[in-house]
Specification:
The complex is a heterodimer of chains A (274) and B (324). Chain A is 76% helix and 0% strand. By secondary structure, chain A is mainly α. In chain A, helix 4 (77-110) packs antiparallel against helix 7 (139-153) and helix 6 (123-137) packs across helix 12 (243-272). By secondary structure, chain B is α/β, with parallel strands linked by helices. Chain B is built from eleven helices and 14 strands. In chain B, helix 3 crosses helix 4 and helix 3 (103-113) packs parallel to helix 5. The chains are: A mainly alpha (274), B alpha/beta (324). Chains A and B meet through helix 1, helix 2, helix 4 and helix 5 of A and helix 2, strand 6, helix 3, helix 6 and helix 7 of B. Chain A: This is ABC transporter permease. Chain A: It is found in: Membrane. Chain A: Its main location: membrane. Chain A: The chain crosses the membrane at residues 50-70, 82-104, 125-154, 160-183, 190-208, 243-268.
């Protein structure tokens, strides 16, 4: 099988190495942040294409179904806006938080993180690439949900462009949270459970109109990052949207996103070297 | 090029819970010292659970040792584990990070994450897939491939983006002979052209004998021997292995057979004996003639293999090595 004994190697290779000792050998190149982020993003997007499309349908149908249910409960106005906005952001929560938590939980448990940990890639590239891919995958479902919701409740479609800001910002916050949960959970089942709980929280606290909730639940609602995405989106349905408040909500979303992605990156480092 | 000194890692005891029995503290690597020379294929041989993978994970910066040092090409890997990724390429036992990618994208992405630019990564990907005969499978996801093909695809990803040291943890598991040959000729080409060094983890003694320049035998976290495969075999050169397979049961009414029983390792109908060549000849003469022959189904006489070395050196697990 092996036809080259060690002694028969080209002499230059051996002697050059031995002569250069004891100085440390030059290191291979480091993968830079943006190119490796792009590579991870592309790879994740391709795997999502293979494995995640059915789940995306589930996410969209779930949100549309909730809106149809809620039509009998809410009577237009502020509550209808909250329901449509909440259901749309729920798609983001389902994919970015729940599925990403599961993915990282399984990757960590199966030893798949070793693959990334033995490549000279910045941890942020792995986390951001995966989070970005999962967040982008929510785009069609979120848009479909929003359009269907507007049709159901007779809301204006004029400001739906705000989704271009809501999806990445809420996506960053929720994907960061999902990645951190998946990477920190000691067992994959626990990661799945936490992801599901996070999504349930986004469902209950985001979709149901806040006016009908007790004080404690409203506090929990304020702590959930997706709430600010929902609020920002809901405000744009008003006849004359209060853009300062929209920007304020989006800013909170963005800050939470940066923090949660930073936590996820830290969690990745911690999980990669045990 | 790679020096390991006093490497020790202990897994803490785990307290039992409902349905999960407690496990005591395990010393996975125990004061391991190794020297791997430039350009050789160095093997770690041992049964499952001997500590091979734990040792390799410490050498690749994936796990921090409790104490000891690992130096690769002049870099202290214990202090700077992140440098390992810029010196070596690692093929682990798991492929879950790549499973849902196509073969082509898995190789290309790995190359990009190894610091190649897009054009280089694509060019190297094409070369490696051609070299390993994977071009026809390039657009299939790894998940859909057979175990051996998937392993070969992961090996392809390891080769994209050249590294002076390849660390391969049981690379040929599940591969057919064609794929195995592709792996070893790819390794040989890199040795001849770049002087690449290979650290190979295996529990396959036949593979160990044919491809390794030197081998360290691991048992319960300790290195119990380290030499060339032939050098190790010379340690037990005085012995021959005799295997006797009986039709139903050993004919214990034959006194010569009864006398052998104490020295044989019994496994069902099979008896394995390690004997001096003279003795072996006598035993074969005894069992192939006379009363014992009627009860004999088959027998073999073999010179020592690495498996015999392992057993002779006091390997604890008697059936851990694979012959294939």
């Amino acid at each position: 099988m092996s036809v080259v004994p060690a002694g028969a190697l080209p002499a230059g290779v051996l002697t050059a190495e031995e002569a250069a000792a004891p100085g440390p050998a030059p290191l291979g190149p480091r993968a830079r942040l943006w190119p490796s982020l792009a590579a991870v993003y592309r790879a994740q997007l391709s795997r999502a294409r293979v494995a995640r499309i059915p789940l995306l349908f589930v996410a969209t149908f779930q949100s549309v179904g909730i809106m149809i249910l809620m039509r009998g409960v809410v009577d237009g106005g502020g509550e209808a806006r909250a329901v449509v906005a909440g259901s749309s952001v729920l798609v983001v929560a389902f994919v970015a938080l729940n599925l990403l938590a599961q993915y990282f939980g399984q990757l960590r448990a199966s030893g798949g993180l070793d693959h990334y940990a033995t490549l000279p890639v910045p941890p942020a590239a792995v986390v951001l690439g995966a989070a970005g891919a999962y967040a982008s995958f929510t785009v069609p479902g979120t848009v479909v949900t929003a359009v269907v919701g507007c049709a159901l409740f007779g809301l204006p479609l004029a400001h739906l462009w705000i989704l271009a800001a809501v999806i990445p910002l809420a996506g960053a916050a929720l994907a960061g949270l999902g990645a951190a949960l998946g990477l920190l959970a000691p067992r994959p089942e626990l990661a799945t459970l936490l992801g599901q709980l996070g999504m349930s929280a986004a469902l209950l606290l985001g979709v149901l109109p806040p006016e009908r909730m007790p004080e404690a639940v409203r506090l929990a609602r304020d702590l959930l990052p997706s709430t600010y995405g929902v609020e920002a989106f809901a405000r744009t349905f008003a006849p004359h949207p209060d853009w300062a408040h929209v920007l304020g909500d989006l800013a909170v979303c963005g800050v939470v996103g940066v923090i949660s992605l930073a936590v996820a990156t830290w969690a990745y480092r911690r999980a990669a070297v045990r | 090029m790679c020096a390991v000194r006093g490497l020790t890692k202990t897994y803490p005891a785990v307290r039992g819970r409902r349905g999960v029995p407690a496990t005591p503290e395990v010393r996975a690597t125990d004061d391991v010292a190794l020297d791997i020379r430039h350009g050789e294929i160095f093997g770690l041989l041992g049964p499952n659970g001997a500590g091979k993978s734990t040792l390799v994970r410490q050498m690749t910066g994936l796990m921090r040792p409790d104490s000891g040092s690992v130096e690769i090409l002049g870099h202290d890997i214990v202090r700077h584990p992140e440098r390992a990724s810029r010196i070596l390429a690692y093929l682990g036992q798991e492929s879950s990070a790549l499973d849902e990618l196509t073969v082509s994208l898995a190789a290309e992405t790995t190359g990009r994450l190894r610091g190649l630019d897009a054009r280089q990564a694509r060019a190297e990907r094409d070369d490696v897939l051609d070299e390993l005969g994977l071009a026809a499978l390039a657009s299939r996801p790894l998940r859909k491939l057979s175990g051996g093909q998937r392993r070969l695809a992961c090996f392809a990803a390891v080769l994209v983006g050249e590294r002076p040291l390849l660390v391969l943890d049981e690379p040929t598991t599940g591969m057919d002979p064609v794929a195995r040959r592709a792996v070893w000729s790819a390794v040989d080409r890199r040795r001849a052209e770049h002087g690449t060094t290979v650290l190979l983890v295996t529990h396959n003694v036949i593979e160990a004998e044919t491809v390794l320049d030197r081998v360290a035998v691991l048992d319960r976290g300790r290195v119990i021997a380290c030499d060339t495969p032939n050098g190790l075999k010379e340690q037990v050169a005085g012995e021959v292995r005799v295997e006797l397979v009986w039709r139903e049961a050993a004919p214990l009414h034959v006194p010569e057979v009864t006398a052998l029983r104490d020295r044989a390792v019994e496994s069902g109908r099979r008896w394995t004996l390690r004997l001096a060549p003279e003795e072996a000849r006598t035993v074969v003469a005894t069992v192939t003639g006379g009363a014992a022959f009627a009860a004999l189904d088959d027998f073999t006489l073999a010179t020592p293999s690495l498996e015999d070395v392992y057993l002779a050196l006091g390997g604890a697990v008697r059936q851990g090595l694979v012959k294939a």
